[in-house]
């Protein structure tokens, strides 16, 4: 079914490009650029399931990424698990946590839900900062030897890069599959009018809980790979609130609700951010610019780049989803 | 034969306000039952209790012989009871087709996406929105949105359809079309329970009418019997002998 969607193949082509470009000429700095873009796409795509599809704004989405990093790193280093197994278990554990959080906060709607997600982020961050097995506020460090299992540090960096690109492709495919499913239609109905959706037969409580915990899975897996690659994790980088907010900017910029919107917004924003951060004059201004950008998008192009593109070429909806 | 819907002794209180008080009635299969009453009589509240939006504080609701009191609206739809809203609730940024597909997907037959689309197209044709299937719901006029409400509910393939003021706000020719549509729906084997303020319409459509006032059932029976009931006249006009008094004053 999904193989028949042209956009499925576009996703694979994008992933192939991400792999080919840095590999061609062993361009390590390009690889490091693209890995940040890929992480941004993963976060924005999964956030899109909540914001763009279901209409529930999650300010604390980064909590899944950070918690996934902690669980995965703990399993891979302290417990000595294989990296991929550790990442998958981290994904499952974090999804279960999300399900439990969801039971508590998904009764809330609109701004109240959004506020509660900030509460979840703060609570988890405080917990981790005081949790002994995870090194409290100093975090955990990876010993250099742990890269040996992946054939040495140099090689391990490439392996984690491929894994992250894989998660990126899966994130987009997940978004595409949900969008074209009955489950997705139920989510759209909830987004448009939750009361009406329930009267039409959508079990909103169950649907919201499922999508909330599904949106936690791939970010948690990516978190494991990313912090493994970085070799360390601590509460302030794992639960970076700014990154959570920037995820929302990426979605608005690219166009929430569209699979390509999340990816495009994430890609462009990440590029812009790294340009601003590395530019000596503007390095402190990237959040100012993010804020300005968000304002412009909300005021003049509420559908984001994809909304504008669809207005220009309405037929493109069927191809670039 | 047991009734399709049996409402017995249902009450609902909001704080100090008794919105619905000890209401009992039955709806038979194949029937169009009208529900009328002055503003604030509790008609929509009664609908909300029947389809599970509100839990009643007392009383029971049985549908097709099974107790459905207090179960959630989405499960009520699966059992075969769909409804429309007085204040229309279109899924604005979805197409008409998607709106109606939601109804078919999550309705009594719980169809898959493909089957639901086919049903949705059929139902859109039936209510006269077939040509606009790919437009966004927000672009419809109020009459169109009312039709969309009906289409979504019909797509659920209900045994019983609850219509909450589908005629309000329509112009006379639209009213005529909607009345025809309701008849067609009933002739298609769906029982109808409808709230309506438009007296002529409800008089001609209903087999029986239930009258609510201040949350209580005031009268029940065939349309012409109900309108001549002195309690009903009082509820609508103030006091029962107002007609006599007015004519006497005029004569004097």
Low-confidence stretches of chain A: none
The CATH superfamily label of the largest domain in chain B reads P-loop containing nucleotide triphosphate hydrolases
Total of helices of chain A: 14
List the domain count of chain A as a whole number. Answer: 1
Q: What is the total tally of β strands of chain A?
A: 2
What is the molecular shape of chain B? globular
End-to-end CA span of chain A: 15 Å
Can you give the helix content of chain A as a percent range? over 70%
Query: If you consult CATH, what is the topology of the largest domain in chain B?
Result: Rossmann fold
The proportion of residues in beta strands of chain A is under 5%
Model description:
- The complex is a heterodimer of chains A (321) and B (252).
- Helices cover 74% and strands 1% of the residues of chain A.
- Chain A has a two-stranded antiparallel sheet.
- Chain A is globular, with a radius of gyration of 19 Å.
- Chain A has a single domain, classed as ABC transporter involved in vitamin B12 uptake, BtuC (Orthogonal Bundle).
- The longest helix of chain A has 27 residues, at 28-54.
- Chain A has helices at 6-23, 28-54, 62-78, 83-105, 110-129, 153-179, 182-192, 194-199, 204-230, 235-238, 241-254, 259-278, 286-300, 304-312, and strands at residues 140-141, 232-233.
- Chain A is mostly helical and 321 residues long.
- Chain A contains 14 helices and two strands, in the order H-H-H-H-H-E-H-H-H-H-E-H-H-H-H-H.
- The mean pLDDT of chain A is 91.
- Chain B is an alpha/beta fold and 252 residues long.
- Chain B has two domains: 1-80 and 160-169 and 176-252, P-loop containing nucleotide triphosphate hydrolases (Rossmann fold), CATH 3.40.50.300; 83-157, no CATH class.
- Chain B contains ten helices and ten strands.
- The model of chain B has no long low-confidence stretch (mean pLDDT 91).
- Classes of the chains: A mainly alpha (321), B alpha/beta (252).
- At the A-B interface, helix 7 and helix 8 of A face helix 2 and helix 3 of B.
């Amino acid at each position: 079914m999904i193989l028949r969607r042209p956009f499925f193949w576009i996703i694979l082509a994008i992933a192939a490009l991400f792999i080919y470009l840095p590999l061609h000429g062993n361009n390590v700095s390009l690889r490091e650029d693209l890995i940040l873009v890929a992480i941004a796409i993963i976060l924005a795509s999964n956030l899109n399931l909540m914001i763009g599809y279901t209409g529930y704004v999650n300010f604390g989405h980064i909590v899944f990424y950070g918690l996934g990093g902690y669980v995965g790193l703990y399993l891979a280093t302290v417990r000595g698990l294989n990296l991929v197994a550790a990442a998958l278990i981290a994904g499952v554990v974090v999804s279960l946590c999300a399900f439990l959080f969801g039971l508590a906060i998904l009764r809330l709607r609109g701004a109240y839900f959004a506020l509660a997600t900030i509460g979840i982020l703060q609570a988890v961050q405080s917990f981790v900062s005081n949790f002994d097995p995870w090194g409290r506020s100093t975090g955990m460090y990876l010993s250099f030897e742990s890269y040996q299992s992946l054939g040495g540090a140099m090689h391990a960096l490439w392996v984690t890069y491929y894994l992250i690109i894989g998660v990126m492709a899966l994130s987009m495919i997940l978004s595409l599959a949900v969008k074209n499913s009955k489950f997705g239609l139920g989510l759209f109905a909830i987004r448009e009018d939750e009361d009406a959706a329930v009267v039409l037969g959508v079990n909103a409580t169950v649907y919201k809980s499922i999508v909330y915990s599904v949106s936690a899975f791939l970010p948690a897996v990516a978190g494991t790979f990313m912090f493994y690659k970085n070799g360390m994790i601590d509460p302030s980088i794992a639960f970076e609130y700014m990154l959570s907010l920037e995820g929302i900017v990426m979605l608005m910029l690219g166009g929430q609700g569209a699979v390509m919107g999340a990816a495009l917004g994430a890609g462009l924003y990440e590029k812009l951010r790294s340009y601003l951060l590395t530019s000596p004059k503007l390095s402190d201004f990237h959040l100012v610019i993010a804020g300005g950008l968000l304002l412009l998008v909300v005021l003049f192009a509420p559908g984001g780049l994809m909304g504008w593109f669809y207005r220009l070429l309405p037929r493109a909806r069927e191809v670039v989803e | 034969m047991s009734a399709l819907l049996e409402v017995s002794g249902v009450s609902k209180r909001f704080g100090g306000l008794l919105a619905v008080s000890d209401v009992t009635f039955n709806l038979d299969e194949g029937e169009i039952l009208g529900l009328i009453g002055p503003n604030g009589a509790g008609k929509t509240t009664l609908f909300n209790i029947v389809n599970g939006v509100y839990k009643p504080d007392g009383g029971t609701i049985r549908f097709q012989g099974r107790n459905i009191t207090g179960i959630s609206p989405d499960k009520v739809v699966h059992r075969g009871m769909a409804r429309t809203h007085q204040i229309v609730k279109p899924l604005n940024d979805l197409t008409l087709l998607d709106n109606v597909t939601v109804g078919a997907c999550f309705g009594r037959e719980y169809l898959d996406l493909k089957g639901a689309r086919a049903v949705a197209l059929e139902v859109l044709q039936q209510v006269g929105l077939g040509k606009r299937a790919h437009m966004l719901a927000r672009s419809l006029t109020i009459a169109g949105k009312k039709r969309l409400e009906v289409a979504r509910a019909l797509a659920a393939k209900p045994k019983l359809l609850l219509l909450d003021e589908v005629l309000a706000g329509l112009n006379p020719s639209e009213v005529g079309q909607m009345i025809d549509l309701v008849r067609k729906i009933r002739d298609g084997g769906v029982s109808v329970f409808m709230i309506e303020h438009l007296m002529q319409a409800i008089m001609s459509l209903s087999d029986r009418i239930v009258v609510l006032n201040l949350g209580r059932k005031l009268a029940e029976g065939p349309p012409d019997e109900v309108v001549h009931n002195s309690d009903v006249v009082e509820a609508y006009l103030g006091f029962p002998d107002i007609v006599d008094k007015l004519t006497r004053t005029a004569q004097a």
